């Protein structure tokens, strides 16, 4: 029994129906309706997605294994790191958040912790310097803003 | 001979000192991107787009730089094929067959030099083809009406998976998803579609964010899953002892490979992988029993390598003249064009002649730069190959973050990119191709616009979509593009696998 394609196919059929229904709810454009209104193209797409997804449900490809267990956790950790990186970029500043994010990722990918965080810190500082001096673009300094020159 | 005049003007643009400098930077970065594991050409070009923006480069400079990156990535792909027996990207697969055995016999630097010369010739042949064919095709494309364009876009989607593609239905699913994402935002009549009242979505989804997320972030997640964190063992590179005779020997192979590659690149649905495959098989046939293919024959390196570079230049023909890319990387280049406010397509040859011809000239100039870069500096690239992905990929991810952040300085875009990254990972696990999604995002607005125009002309009569001979032809080819992979796809795939397996057993 194969699941991946079937489940994805069903999800996409649901999406197609929801999307198609959403398209029928558009208000009529100003100036009256035309041959092709704002809903025509989306409705076409909903039909195409619905039919092609149905094909996936009926004739699915063999499954690829999902990484459960440890690798799965590593993946979730990586995604959490990326989200936190985005969240902390402004408050902590580019250099510190980069050191933490790149460091953690290198470490989780198999580097030794010390080397990992040094890589993170160095890359953060280098990219910051390149951006602010060579390219003249301001990245947020965050809590390091006291270092700002001038 | 009008073309020659344009080309001369193009050289005038491409040879301006700062454009030349950016071409050099692009060629260097491109080779690097091609050589490094886990950074395909599409991926590399995608990450560099936001940076090209934030630098505030002039359109032609940005395009010249990224075309050089594109050309460079094709050169770089061969380095890991030859030294590690790992193709940098799919088209470089054929180069492994004779390149790796040559390296095993202690002729790594000869293999690298030969492949650089073959790449150069392949690109050169194909760029000349591009110069001849592109203006003709552009002129022809001026006769296209909206209905023909609509059919052409369908053809582009249908053939994207290529004849060797596995499951064309998944291409359709992916294309529909991409087109759906493209409908988000305020449409041309001022109606809000699928914005859910979120201010950030009013202008639609920025395809650059989607591209970087889908490619770069999902690549990071894939590497984590495969635990391919450490560096790979690589071959020692000997001192180069290449004679003129060795180069002369591979010249015919390179020319043949370049021509075949160009044809494969221009045709929809063939692509660089098929280009290098045909290049290799033809060489085997032509040389016959005198060759020792699979055991380190230099002609087996030159043929496919010229084919693959020829195909990548050939792939620019439909992208520049019709605005319809045939591969992932050309789709990313199209994204750059659209974001620079240049409408790709036949009109570009008249309205933005300086840019188009500047880019074409830059392709020629870039090739010379790459040849010069690649022979003496190959040592540097070889050293960089040993940078383990566990350091490389986090840094690449960081650069993607910086690039996206610097476009609009909002964190919302970063979250969006991460979401696209996770989605990209899940889709790749399901073997849903990502390129049709990107193409859908890029072509969606144009496709809808052409549908509207066609219907306005016909006053709501849908039959206009297949009313001209040209449109019918395009529909037929689109249909074939979806059906043929089911019929001859398995045969071709098996054929492509056979020599690789022979090669693998031969080199053990």
From TrEMBL, chain A:
Ranges where the DUF1468 domain occurs: 7-140
Transmembrane segment boundaries: 41-58, 70-88, 94-110, 122-147
Protein's recorded name: Tripartite tricarboxylate transporter TctB family protein
Keyword Transmembrane helix recorded: yes
InterPro entries on file: DUF1468
Keyword vocabulary terms for this entry: Membrane, Transmembrane, Transmembrane helix
Natural source organism: Vreelandella janggokensis
């Amino acid at each position: 029994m194969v699941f991946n394609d079937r489940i994805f196919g069903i999800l996409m059929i649901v999406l197609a129906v929801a999307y198609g229904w959403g398209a029928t709810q558009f208000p009529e454009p100003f100036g009256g309706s035309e041959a092709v209104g704002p809903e025509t193209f989306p409705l076409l797409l909903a039909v195409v997605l619905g039919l092609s997804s149905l094909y996936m449900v009926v004739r699915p490809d063999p499954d690829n294994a999902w990484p459960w267990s440890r690798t799965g956790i590593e993946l979730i950790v990586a995604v959490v790191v990326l989200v936190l990186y985005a969240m902390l970029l402004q408050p902590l500043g580019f250099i510190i958040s980069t050191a933490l994010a790149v460091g953690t990722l290198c470490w989780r990918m198999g580097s030794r912790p010390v080397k990992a965080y040094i890589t993170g810190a160095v890359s953060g500082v280098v990219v910051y310097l390149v951006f602010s001096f060579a390219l003249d673009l301001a990245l947020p300094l965050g809590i390091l803003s006291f270092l700002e020159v001038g | 001979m009008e073309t020659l005049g344009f080309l001369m003007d193009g050289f005038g643009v491409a040879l301006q000192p700062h454009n030349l400098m950016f071409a050099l930077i692009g060629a260097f970065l491109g080779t690097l991107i091609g050589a490094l594991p886990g950074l395909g050409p599409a991926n590399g070009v995608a990450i560099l787009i936001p940076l090209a923006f934030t630098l505030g480069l002039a359109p032609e400079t940005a395009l010249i730089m990224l075309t050089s990156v594109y050309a460079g990535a094709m050169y770089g792909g061969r380095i890991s094929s030859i030294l590690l027996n790992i193709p940098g990207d799919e088209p470089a697969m054929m180069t492994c067959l004779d390149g790796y055995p040559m390296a095993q016999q202690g002729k790594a630097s000869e293999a690298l030099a030969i492949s650089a010369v073959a790449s150069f010739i392949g690109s050169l042949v194909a760029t000349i083809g591009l110069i001849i064919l592109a203006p003709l095709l552009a002129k022809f494309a001026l006769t296209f009406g909206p209905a023909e364009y609509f059919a052409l876009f369908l053809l582009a989607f249908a053939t994207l998976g290529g004849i060797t593609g596995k499951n064309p239905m998944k291409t359709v699913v992916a294309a529909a998803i991409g087109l759906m994402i493209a409908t988000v935002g305020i449409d041309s009549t001022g109606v809000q579609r699928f914005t859910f009242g979120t201010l950030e979505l009013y202008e639609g989804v920025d395809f650059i964010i989607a591209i970087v997320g889908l490619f770069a972030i999902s690549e990071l997640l894939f590497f984590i899953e495969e635990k391919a964190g450490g560096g790979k063992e690589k071959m020692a590179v000997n001192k180069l002892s290449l004679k003129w005779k060795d180069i002369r020997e591979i010249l015919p192979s390179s020319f043949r490979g370049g021509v075949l590659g160009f044809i494969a690149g221009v045709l929809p649905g063939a692509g660089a992988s098929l280009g290098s495959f045909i290049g290799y098989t033809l060489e085997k046939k032509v040389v016959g029993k005198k060759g020792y293919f699979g055991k380190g024959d230099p002609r087996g390196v030159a043929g496919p390598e010229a084919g693959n570079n020829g195909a990548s230049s050939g792939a620019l023909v439909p992208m520049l003249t019709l605005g319809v890319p045939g591969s992932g990387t050309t789709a990313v280049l199209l994204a750059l064009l659209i974001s620079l406010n240049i409408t790709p397509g036949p009109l570009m040859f008249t309205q933005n002649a300086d840019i188009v011809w500047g880019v074409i000239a830059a392709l020629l100039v870039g090739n010379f730069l790459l040849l010069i870069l690649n022979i003496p500096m190959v040592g540097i690239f070889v050293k960089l190959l040993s940078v383990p992905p566990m350091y490389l990929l986090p840094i690449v991810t960081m650069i993607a973050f910086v690039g996206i952040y610097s476009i609009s300085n909002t964190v919302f875009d970063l979250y969006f990119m991460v979401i696209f990254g996770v989605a990209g990972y899940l889709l790749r696990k399901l073997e849903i191709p990502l390129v049709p999604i990107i193409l859908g995002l890029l072509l969606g607005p144009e496709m809808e616009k052409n549908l509207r125009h066609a219907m306005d002309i016909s006053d709501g009569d849908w039959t206009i979509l297949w009313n001209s001979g040209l449109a019918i032809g395009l529909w037929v080819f689109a249909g074939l593009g979806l059906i043929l992979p089911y019929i001859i796809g398995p045969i071709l795939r098996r054929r492509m696998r056979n020599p690789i397996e022979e090669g693998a057993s031969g080199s053990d």
